[in-house]
């Protein structure tokens, strides 16, 4: 049995040599055109993905259904589509007001609540609940402040918080407790705003396990009690002091939260990439500075948290960071020079990189096989239930431009398959037999049975919960991965069948209400996920 496991480990280690051109992972083109450029994406609990760009990009390459046109307009094209993962097909949707550079979060009932945008869309709250004939519903004055480039996150009480945005140094909630519930000032957004450049848009926001919010903007971060409007803690400036938020767009993740005895001992944030301080001004004079090649990692659960810096094998601005079901971090998309914004990025980075948080510092990064399609400004990436990563978008132009430009508007959808999906490893992949899906309550015990054709080591079994995040502008809002307690209690029932009992996290601070993907992982190889819901 251990001989078997050793062999697998050797396969994985063999692939773990960094800097290899023929690295692991593979790409496939799913659809050459979905008709729009995927600027925003959200996976929904029926395995469809709602995608939209902006309503003022000009005519898209997909028509609205049934000969419809936009109100008071000769534009009869769609600016939002629904992608059906199983059928690999799309359906056009009608979004009425401008959703450009907006934000959102999936609600516990499975609908996407999306907020803000540009011009007539900047106060709008839009709801998309998927079905075969469903479409967007819009509430014109759903927000109390205009929000453009804001960040949303799910809260333990089932509401979402909406933070910041251009010239919106405050936050508010959806749904509101009363119609006149107003926005609340957040001076941190004033402090982190660089005059004429900003560098603090789409702040990186995560719910800490103590119920406070970790908010990172520009070059530093706070722990924030949103209920009392109080800064609980101020973190040190990231070494180097270079900006990491739009337009110097880096990305960030909350590293996997491991539950032991109902608690999470270590809460860590990883911020990667971005652009040097003067990069935005320089890019506007046609000088494209090399992107940052550093990541900062900070244990926010420490009494005296300090940044620890690491160097990526590839410099990157506008990279997306995604948590894979096995707890590794995928860094994908973006460019290696310039900044975000119209025409300001250069030198696409075609190779993703995987970061293994649990490995020794010297062998955490692993370069993956490259795509052939540049994914520059306004590109996106999200995790799918089967473990693939859906990649789309890229349009650094004010309108759709398909010729005579450095980076033509990209309408295609691709999938990146990490090494764990390699057919040679299929015999080692767990398959969840039951449940098929489930509604869970905090503190519940959940029994899962799964099949795997090779013998397993219970100490190497993880059961993970991943929240499907809202992705735009290189940040995945509401992204979270929990390693449940009890993976090591896996027992064999014979005939390749196994059973494991795990505990649902005890509180909404650790696992806010919502839909999650649940995976059984063995030796870094995840099963297909199942949908579970914490109402
Ligand atoms: C999109 O439509 C434009 C204008 O009709 C056309 O030039 C272009 O080739 C189309 N692009 C794709 C990728 O379909
Ligand atoms: C599983 O791991 C936990 C936490 O490390 C430990 O307390 C427990 O005894 C282990 N259980 C088994 C069956 O190994």
Automatic annotation (TrEMBL):
<feature type="domain" description="Glyoxal oxidase N-terminal">
    <location>
        <begin position="39"/>
        <end position="420"/>
    </location>
</feature>
<dbReference type="InterPro" id="IPR037293">
    <property type="entry name" value="Gal_Oxidase_central_sf"/>
</dbReference>
<protein>
    <recommendedName>
        <fullName>Galactose oxidase/kelch, beta-propeller</fullName>
    </recommendedName>
</protein>
<dbReference type="Pfam" id="PF07250">
    <property type="entry name" value="Glyoxal_oxid_N"/>
</dbReference>
<dbReference type="InterPro" id="IPR009880">
    <property type="entry name" value="Glyoxal_oxidase_N"/>
</dbReference>
<dbReference type="Pfam" id="PF09118">
    <property type="entry name" value="GO-like_E_set"/>
</dbReference>
<dbReference type="InterPro" id="IPR015202">
    <property type="entry name" value="GO-like_E_set"/>
</dbReference>
<feature type="domain" description="Galactose oxidase-like Early set">
    <location>
        <begin position="429"/>
        <end position="534"/>
    </location>
</feature>
<dbReference type="InterPro" id="IPR014756">
    <property type="entry name" value="Ig_E-set"/>
</dbReference>
<dbReference type="InterPro" id="IPR011043">
    <property type="entry name" value="Gal_Oxase/kelch_b-propeller"/>
</dbReference>
<keyword id="KW-0732">Signal</keyword>
<dbReference type="InterPro" id="IPR013783">
    <property type="entry name" value="Ig-like_fold"/>
</dbReference>
<feature type="signal peptide">
    <location>
        <begin position="1"/>
        <end position="21"/>
    </location>
</feature>
């Amino acid at each position: 049995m251990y001989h078997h496991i050793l062999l697998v480990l050797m396969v994985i280690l063999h692939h773990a040599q960094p800097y290899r051109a023929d690295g692991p992972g593979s790409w496939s083109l799913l659809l050459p055109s979905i008709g729009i450029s995927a600027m925003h994406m959200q996976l929904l609990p029926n395995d469809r993905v709602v995608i939209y760009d902006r309503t003022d990009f000009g005519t898209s390459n997909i028509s609205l259904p049934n000969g419809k046109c936009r109100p008071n307009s000769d534009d009869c094209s769609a600016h939002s589509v629904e992608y059906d993962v199983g059928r690999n097909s799309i359906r056009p949707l009608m979004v009425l007001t401008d959703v450009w550079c907006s934000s959102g979060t999936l609600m516990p009932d499975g609908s996407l609540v999306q907020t803000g945008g540009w011009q007539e869309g900047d106060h709008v709250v839009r709801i998309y609940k998927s079905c075969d004939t469903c479409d967007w519903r819009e509430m014109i004055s759903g927000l109390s402040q205009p929000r453009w480039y804001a960040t949303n996150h799910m809260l333990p009480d089932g509401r979402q918080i909406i933070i910041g945005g251009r010239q919106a140094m405050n936050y508010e909630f959806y749904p509101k407790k009363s119609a006149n519930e107003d926005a609340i000032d957040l001076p941190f957004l004033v402090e982190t705003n660089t005059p004429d450049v900003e560098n603090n848009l789409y702040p990186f926001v995560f719910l800490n396990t103590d119920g406070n919010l970790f908010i990172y903007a520009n070059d530093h971060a706070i722990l924030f009690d949103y209920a009392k409007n109080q800064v609980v803690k101020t973190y040190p400036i990231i070494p180097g002091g270079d900006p990491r938020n739009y337009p110097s767009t880096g990305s960030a993740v909350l590293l996997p939260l491991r539950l032991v005895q109902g608690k999470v001992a270590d809460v860590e944030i990883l911020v990667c990439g971005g652009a040097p301080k003067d990069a935005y001004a320089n890019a506007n004079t046609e000088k494209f500075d090399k992107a940052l090649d550093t990541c900062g990692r900070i244990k926010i659960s420490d009494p005296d948290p300090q940044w620890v810096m690491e160097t990526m094998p590839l410099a990157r601005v506008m990279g997306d960071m995604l948590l894979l079901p096995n707890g590794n971090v995928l860094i994908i998309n973006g460019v290696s020079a310039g900044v975000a914004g119209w025409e300001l990025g250069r030198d696409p980075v075609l190779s993703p990189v995987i970061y293994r948080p649990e490995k020794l510092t010297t062998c955490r990064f692993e370069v993956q096989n490259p795509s052939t399609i540049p994914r520059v400004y306004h590109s996106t990436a999200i995790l799918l239930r089967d473990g693939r990563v859906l990649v789309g978008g890229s349009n650094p132009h004010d309108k759709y431009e398909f010729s005579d430009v450095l980076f033509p508007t990209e309408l295609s959808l691709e999938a990146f398959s990490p090494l764990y999906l390699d057919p040679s490893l299929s015999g080692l992949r767990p398959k969840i037999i039951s449940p098929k899906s489930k509604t869970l309550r905090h503190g519940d015990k959940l029994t899962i049975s799964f099949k795997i054709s090779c013998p397993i080591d219970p100490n190497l079994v993880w059961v993970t919960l991943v929240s499907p995040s809202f992705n735009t502008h290189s940040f995945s809002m509401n992204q979270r991965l929990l390693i449940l307690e009890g993976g090591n209690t896996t027992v064999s029932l014979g005939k390749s069948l196994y059973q494991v009992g795990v505990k649902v996290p005890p509180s909404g601070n650790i696992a806010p209400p919502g839909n999650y993907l649940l995976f059984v992982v063995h030796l870094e190889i995840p099963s297909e996920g199942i949908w579970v819901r914490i109402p």
